[in-house]
Amino acid sequence: MRICFETERLMIRPLAPDDAEMAFRWCGDPKVNTYMIYPLYHRVEDVRAWLEKRDPDDPDNYDEGIVLKSTGELIGSGGMHYHAERDAWEIGYNIRADKWGNGYVVEYLKALIEQVRKVRPVDAIDGIFASENHKSQRVMEKLGMHYFMDTVFSKLDGSETFQAKYYRRDYSPAKESGVLTALAERRSYRGKYLPEPVPREDLRIIMQAGLDAPSGCNKQTTGLIGVDDPEVLGKLKAVIRPPVAETAPAVICVLTQRINAYRDRCFAVQDYSAAIENMLLAAEALGYRSCWYEGHITDTDRIGDQMAEILDVPNGYELVCMLPIGIPAEKPSVPKKKAFSERAWFNSFGCDQEKRHS
Ligand SMILES: Cc1cc2nc3c(=O)[nH]c(=O)nc-3n(C[C@H](O)[C@H](O)[C@H](O)COP(=O)(O)O)c2cc1C
User: N or C: lower Cβ tally within 10 Å for the chain?
Assistant: First the structure.
């Protein structure tokens, strides 16, 4: 379907056969093609033939050109295709390799999904990517998609088959906010992290979620220090014995001021607990994993005090918890939890509705 719009850095417009030469810069690049379903193009004429054959008015297919506003260059294409059999839209994209790592795909697809939702019902967005393609995994996560299931896909010419992951974003009202998904999927993660750094923007979002938490009498006794400088991280990790979160590319240190909220009532523990849980959920929603390391650093060996010294934390604050933040390299272990009926009841302790009225 032809669609034109602009984002902050991009101009989106339909592709035309005259784009063949520019499109060959990604269609003919083996690096871009590695995990693509279509075989590598070897001639500009073949790209032109593909562009001529496309139906730009297909209402179930948005596959537009992505133009960089600053230079006017066509740098890629992509969009979303409706699959009636599963009532979902699947996303796809190609970006010239020299333009990777700038967030253009996420900027485009976020805006496209919004545009399409104005004119068509969109119940779910799907994305399938080779499991080893971590860059695509990040794109899906930034679009608010979550793991749905494992799958496989093959190139159209059958030359290669990939173990793949199927990610989905469900637009049903309850799931829309992502809060319930993050709540259900959060786990304490103690495995290895991928070496990719956490963008400062994401760390700030997670930390802001912590600051947004409730606090007793609004005393806001919790302070935070995000650490993403490898040198400072190295110093912190050197004092954490036995080591945990050794591969985390960032950590958030949680500080508390143990001051009274009113009379002799101090809610500092409740305040920082609420902040920590908010941050764990925000990290989960952005596709990161973390773990609430409090016992480990506040035990008799007082590792937290050594960390506070490294971070120049002044008197009056105590460093009580460390949250590693990063993209997980492994699956988290899932602890066994008691059943709902063992810990939660309706109307009186230990009773469910039926028992109480029988
Ligand atoms: C106050 C508190 C302190 C914790 N301290 C640690 C810790 O020092 N090390 C650790 O590995 N996990 C720590 N955890 C994480 C718990 O072990 C974890 O939440 C629990 O096993 C349940 O697993 P789940 O978070 O995946 O649901 C802490 C959790 C809380 C609430």
Answer: C
Domain of residue 227, residue span = 200-325
What does the angle CA 126 – CA 129 – CA 132 come to, to the nearest 5 degrees? 150
Q: How far apart are the C-alpha atoms of 305 and 310, rounded to whole Å?
A: 9
Distance 205 CA to ligand 1 centre (A): 22
Structural domain contains residue 339: no
Which atom of ligand 1 lies closest to the CA of 298?
A: 8
Whether residue 221 sits in one domain with residue 76: no
In the chain, what is the straight-line distance between the N-terminal and C-terminal CA atoms, in Å? 60
**Binding site membership of 185 for ligand 1 (Cβ less than 6 Å):** no
Q: Tell me if 335 CB under 6 Å of ligand 1.
A: yes
The response to whether residue 293 sits with its C-beta less than 6 Å from ligand 1 reads: yes
User: Does the beta carbon of 270 sit less than 6 angstroms from any atom of ligand 1?
Assistant: no
122 with 257, same domain: the answer is: no
CATH number where 316 lies: 3.40.109.10
